[in-house]
Amino acid sequence: MDSHELIHRTLTNLQTQEPLVDSPKPTRSVNVKTLKSPVQYLLRSQRFVCLLVGIVMAALFFNRFPISTPPPHHHLTLHDPVIFPFESSTLPTRRVLFEARSDDVDDQFSGRANGGRVPLGLKTKRLRVLVTGGAGFVGSHLVDRLMERGDSVIVVDNFFTGRKENVVHHLGNPRFELIRHDVVEPILLEVDQIYHLACPASPVHYKFNPTNVVGTLNMLGLAKRIGARFLLTSTSEVYGDPLQHPQVETYWGNVNPIGVRSCYDEGKRTAETLTMDYHRGAGIEVRIARIFNTYGPRMCIDDGRVVSNFVAQALRKEPLTVYGDGKQTRSFQYVSDLVEGLMRLMEGEHVGPFNLGNPSEFTMLELAKVVQEVIDPNAKIEFRPNTEDDPHKRKPDITKAQQLLDWEPVVSLRKGLPLMVTDFKHRIFGNPREDTGTEYSSFSA
Ligand SMILES: NC(=O)c1ccc[n+]([C@@H]2O[C@H](COP(=O)([O-])OP(=O)(O)OC[C@H]3O[C@@H](n4cnc5c(N)ncnc54)[C@H](O)[C@@H]3O)[C@@H](O)[C@H]2O)c1
């Protein structure tokens, strides 16, 4: 074969075949008419474009509606394991997921930014809150604050030491419900939070009606069933007659298990144990407050608690009864300080236990002198033999609450006592005004 022939064949090939390299691809001619519909055309001939559009749409969708998962490490912060070695964090529960979602929704409507915690009192989300013992002294002040915040509140109370008058100003409000019920019997309700206060708190009452263990068990059962957050109001009595002063949460106490006060002290200790077991075993979100002596309007008159005793005696012109030598100490916190602490604890991320009390320490004699100053300088002091198992010293160390809840009491005894006196005067001398909560609100945060 000569070279001409070769050249000729190459040219022929070039004319008849598609170019091999470096030539732009001819656009595939598709006969649109042969396809049944534009959709078919898109699916068959523009698959890549369809794919791209799909990816973009999916990205946009998941960006707008992210899959709701609990925030990483939410409720799992151990702030200072050195100072608070047994501070336990909450376990994630069903409720955490619900809460995260509803907060998101709330934020969408309120235009609130996602980051950071909203200060107490400014939350827009309405909670359904159960307050057991809500017709009692502390409970009724707590109910006032929750109602003020816009929550829906259910009070469960058997009125053993509580009074309807303490909450009567909320009756008729559609966000408020009052149920007469004894917490030793189970009850079914749908709420987001349970503040469990139901329990007689003074020796004259709790000796006759110890409800701590069974009542707490029932409320924990309810919390588990409905995924509610549960707060137990425990007491400084869990420290018994303390050998450590002031009392830190890590102190295990010195309690007589068979004494006259044991049904209360040991009852609350058992209640704390149950609360922690439900937390660890069933994943319930729990909070534990150890409340120190609290006073204020709506306290039971004549229930044997020292502040109410002194105030009532001074108003009735009776001698102030001091038990023992009067050198035993107590610390007294005004009720609005306690309520603030309880709400911070409930809304915060820490299980506790937290001491909630005023660390200013007074001997019984000093307290009697303040009462004389505030009410009646001529009031006499009468000494009586001390009661069994009366603790010698009681003063909270509140470092933990200061650091983790950013909480501390702000109302001094000299400021708080006169507010209580106004209320006691109304009740002892029969003033027609029954709602005595107005004094309290002047100190609420
Ligand atoms: N006030 C304090 O100084 C103090 C100190 C430490 C702990 N606490 C705790 O705080 C909580 C409230 O105390 P408080 O001072 O308001 O007492 P409180 O007696 O005024 O209130 C207790 C309320 O619980 C109700 N209650 C009692 N047993 C009940 C039952 N079985 N079922 C339903 N309701 C029941 C009472 O009727 C009352 O309304 C208690 O748990 C108490 O142990 C209070």
Automatic annotation (TrEMBL):
<protein>
    <recommendedName>
        <fullName>UDP-glucuronate decarboxylase</fullName>
        <ecNumber>4.1.1.35</ecNumber>
    </recommendedName>
</protein>
<comment type="similarity">
    <text>Belongs to the NAD(P)-dependent epimerase/dehydratase family. UDP-glucuronic acid decarboxylase subfamily.</text>
</comment>
<dbReference type="Pfam" id="PF16363">
    <property type="entry name" value="GDP_Man_Dehyd"/>
</dbReference>
<keyword id="KW-0472">Membrane</keyword>
<dbReference type="InterPro" id="IPR036291">
    <property type="entry name" value="NAD(P)-bd_dom_sf"/>
</dbReference>
<comment type="pathway">
    <text>Nucleotide-sugar biosynthesis; UDP-alpha-D-xylose biosynthesis; UDP-alpha-D-xylose from UDP-alpha-D-glucuronate: step 1/1.</text>
</comment>
<comment type="function">
    <text>Catalyzes the NAD-dependent decarboxylation of UDP-glucuronic acid to UDP-xylose. Necessary for the biosynthesis of the core tetrasaccharide in glycosaminoglycan biosynthesis.</text>
</comment>
<dbReference type="InterPro" id="IPR016040">
    <property type="entry name" value="NAD(P)-bd_dom"/>
</dbReference>
<keyword id="KW-0456">Lyase</keyword>
<feature type="domain" description="NAD(P)-binding">
    <location>
        <begin position="130"/>
        <end position="418"/>
    </location>
</feature>
<keyword id="KW-0210">Decarboxylase</keyword>
<keyword id="KW-0812">Transmembrane</keyword>
<dbReference type="InterPro" id="IPR044516">
    <property type="entry name" value="UXS-like"/>
</dbReference>
<keyword id="KW-1133">Transmembrane helix</keyword>
<feature type="transmembrane region" description="Helical">
    <location>
        <begin position="48"/>
        <end position="67"/>
    </location>
</feature>
<keyword id="KW-0520">NAD</keyword>
